[in-house]
């Protein structure tokens, strides 16, 4: 992306909230669109894995993954309430205005994955950044070999995008496996960490010609990486998206720089081979 | 580059010339004691401009990257939000900027204008900035104990990136034009052509002044290699980190530091402004995310970060300019004595303790 000389890279554009859906406790999906239709059109050219900067004026600005695929009709963010900006966003109601700029970051190089098996491993809200990629891959189903989705949550009530998960479970050509750390009444599925799904009877994760997408909390990330490496995955076959404190999103403010990489412009998508060489905690 | 000679008594006429062309002229002044500062030249203070004085701690970087700069003005009305970017595009000249600070501004140019995203706020401040470089020639007043521009290859006489360069030859000054705008000043009758003796004198003075630098960091290049390769031991970074008071002073005085944070502040009811403020990688909150996770846990992680960002070969190549210009300010202000020259020295000392040259046996 090359901004023209007159473009202001810090200028967000106003957007309006259409509706808000509670996904799980503390996590809501905010459906929104730019006030300016041309802006909306331009924004929709994002790639899976990219992110946007969300402005809550008076509180601040924060980076947020883009969970929709570029071809989905609606644009939305799925946000966990964790700091002051996200708390302010959670206070908003349909019809309220905020501001957005982006999309930023490298995104997943989907074309490079054509002809491969895709294995998605998402722990908890780690499914948010991977959702875009999964929906995009299913829209171009014939470009890929096997597609497997592994999603784990603490409890059945904390599984993300439940209706989408059911849709994927019923989609031919998609293997969708779910697990929870603690079962609850009515849960007949697997109990255990997400990595325990790989060894389940009837599950076979191909290693040859496969790309594994891993997103989730640090502890889950470490264990899944260990499992995948033990299964024979090469570090460059594993991709993830990193999150960092960011102010600008365009490689200027310096906060997200790890090793030689600015997460905002060189990432947020990195292979595990790159992550392992950056030299910082994940 | 075209050079001219002018009398010592006429040097400040360059300031007058620039002011007549509607430039806001910034020049160095002396306060009490060591205190020196850049300020706007007025009719009242013009006579107090000093040519030879210790370089102000507060770097002239702020004229292209103010320590607090407004980016946006935002107004809320009837459920809507009006966002208005606010720009400043001053016509400004810095008279007497030192070669190290000039290299600092060049580094900022590379960083803010040379990458994928151009920073329009920086660009507007930079566009009409006229730079009059002064060569450090007075070993007692110009060169501090910590100056090491000779090692960073930025001074004492800058080779480019100025509009006009002035050098004290005694009773006369030599002026060198670096741009057509600088050369245009030569139309004034105060400038005249010099002779071979002036060039000879410039050479003699520069040769002499290069020997008067007290801090020599002869290991600078090796340090760059060690830091780039990651061969500096964790223990050395810990020693450096242990001496850091986490005050952020080094980043505040650095003419080549670029990091900033962004903050929203109210200015009236339903009206706020978004500003950017210099930030420092020395502070623990610099990388702390919402929810409390901080990928850089310890102070030595953060010190490691600062020196890696400044010295790693990758970044020097990426920006085609190094983020350390040898001004020595970090060494001057650091209470823990871990300015750049000391860090270079600590890395040198640590590497002599490792007998990597003597790995022999039978």
Structure description:
The complex is a heterodimer of chains A (282) and B (362). Chain A is of the alpha/beta class and 282 residues long. Chain A folds into two domains: 13-104, Translation factors (Elongation Factor Tu (Ef-tu), domain 3, Beta Barrel); 110-241, Rossmann fold (3-Layer(aba) Sandwich), CATH 3.40.50.80. In chain A, 22% of the residues lie in helices and 30% in strands. Chain A has seven helices and 15 strands. Chain A has helices at 37-43, 84-91, 127-139, 162-170, 218-231, 263-266, 272-278; strands at 13-24, 27-34, 51-56, 60-65, 75-80, 97-104, 117-123, 147-153, 174-180, 190-191, 210-215, 238-241, 257-258, 261-262, 269-271. In chain A, the strands form three sheets. In chain A, strands 10-9-8-7-11-12-15 form a seven-stranded mixed sheet, with helices on both faces. In chain A, strands 4-3-6-1-2-5 form a six-stranded antiparallel sheet. In chain A, strands 13-14 form a two-stranded antiparallel ribbon. Chain A starts with 12 loop residues before the first strand and ends with a helix. The model of chain A has no long low-confidence stretch (mean pLDDT 92). By secondary structure, chain B is α/β, with parallel strands linked by helices. Chain B folds into two domains: 3-210, no CATH class; 220-353, no CATH class. Chain B is 33% helix and 20% strand. Chain B is built from 13 helices and eleven strands. Chain B has helices spanning 13-20, 99-113, 120-127, 149-152, 180-184, 196-210, 220-229, 234-242, 249-253, 299-311, 313-319, 329-333, 340-353, and strands at residues 3-7, 24-30, 36-40, 68-77, 80-85, 92-98, 129-134, 164-168, 172-177, 260-268, 271-278. A seven-stranded mixed sheet of chain B has the order 1-9-8-7-6-2-3. A four-stranded antiparallel sheet of chain B has the order 5-4-11-10, with no helix packed on it. Chain B is globular, with a radius of gyration of 23 Å. Chain B starts with a strand and ends in a 9-residue tail after the last helix. The mean pLDDT of chain B is 91.
């Amino acid at each position: 992306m090359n901004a023209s000389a007159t473009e202001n890279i810090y200028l967000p554009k106003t957007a309006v909230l259409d509706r808000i859906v509670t996904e799980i406790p503390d996590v809501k999906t905010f459906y929104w669109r730019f006030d300016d239709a041309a802006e909306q059109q331009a924004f929709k050219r994002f790639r899976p894995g990219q992110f946007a900067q969300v402005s809550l004026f008076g509180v601040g600005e924060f980076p947020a993954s883009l969970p929709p695929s570029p071809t989905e009709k609606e644009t939305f963010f799925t946000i966990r309430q964790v700091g002051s900006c996200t708390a302010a966003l959670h206070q908003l109601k349909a019809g309220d205005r905020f501001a957005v700029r982006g999309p930023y970051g490298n995104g997943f190089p989907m074309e490079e994955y054509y002809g491969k098996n895709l294995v998605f491993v998402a722990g908890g809200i780690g499914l948010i950044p991977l959702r875009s990629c999964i929906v995009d891959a299913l829209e171009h189903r014939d470009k890929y070999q096997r597609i497997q989705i592994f999603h784990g949550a603490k409890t059945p009530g904390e599984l993300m995008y439940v209706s989408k998960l059911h849709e994927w479970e019923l989609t031919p050509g998609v293997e969708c496996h779910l697990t929870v750390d603690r079962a609850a009444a009515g849960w007949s599925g697997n109990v255990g960490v997400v990595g325990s799904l790989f060894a389940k009877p009837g599950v076979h994760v191909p290693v040859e010609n496969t790309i594994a997408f891993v997103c989730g909390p640090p502890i889950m990330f470490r264990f899944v990486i260990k499992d995948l490496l033990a299964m024979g995955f090469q570090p460059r076959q594993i991709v993830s998206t990193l999150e960092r404190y960011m102010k600008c999103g365009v490689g200027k403010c310096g906060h997200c720089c790890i090793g030689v990489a600015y997460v905002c412009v060189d990432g947020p998508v990195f292979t595990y081979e790159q992550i392992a060489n950056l030299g910082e905690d994940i | 580059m075209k050079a001219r000679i002018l009398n010592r008594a006429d040097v400040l006429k360059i300031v007058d010339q620039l002011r007549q062309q509607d430039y806001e002229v910034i020049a160095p002044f002396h306060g009490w004691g060591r205190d020196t500062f850049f300020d706007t030249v007025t009719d009242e203070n013009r006579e107090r401009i000093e040519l030879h004085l210790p370089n102000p701690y507060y770097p002239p970087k702020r004229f292209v990257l103010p320590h607090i700069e407004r980016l946006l003005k935002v107004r809320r009305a009837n459920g809507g939000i009006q966002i208005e970017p606010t720009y400043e595009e001053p016509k400004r000249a810095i008279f007497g900027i030192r070669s190290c600070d000039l290299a600092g501004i060049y580094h900022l140019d590379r960083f803010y204008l040379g990458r994928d995203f151009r920073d329009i706020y920086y660009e507007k401040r930079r566009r009409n900035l006229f730079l009059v470089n002064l060569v450090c020639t007075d070993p007692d007043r110009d060169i501090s104990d910590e100056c090491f521009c000779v090692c960073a290859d930025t001074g004492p006489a800058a080779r480019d990136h100025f509009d006009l360069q002035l050098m004290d030859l005694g009773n006369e000054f030599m002026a060198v034009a670096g741009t057509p705008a600088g050369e245009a000043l030569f139309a004034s009758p105060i400038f005249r052509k010099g002779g071979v003796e002036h060039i000879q004198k410039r050479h003699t003075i520069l040769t002499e002044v290069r020997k008067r630098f007290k801090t020599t960091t002869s290991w600078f290049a090796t340090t760059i290699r060690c830091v780039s390769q990651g061969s500096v031991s964790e223990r050395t970074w810990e020693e450096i980190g242990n001496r850091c008071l986490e005050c952020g002073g080094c980043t505040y005085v650095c003419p080549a530091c670029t990091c900033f944070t962004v903050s929203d502040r109210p200015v009236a009811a339903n009206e706020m402004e978004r500003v950017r403020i210099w930030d420092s990688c020395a502070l623990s909150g610099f990388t702390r995310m919402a929810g409390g996770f901080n990928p850089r846990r310890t102070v030595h992680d953060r010190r490691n970060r600062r020196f890696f960002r400044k010295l790693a070969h990758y970044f020097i190549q990426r920006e085609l300019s190094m983020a350390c210009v040898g001004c020595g300010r970090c060494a001057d202000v650091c209470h823990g004595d871990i300015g750049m020259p000391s860090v270079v020295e600590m890395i040198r000392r640590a590497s002599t303790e490792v007998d990597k040259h003597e790995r022999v046996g039978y």
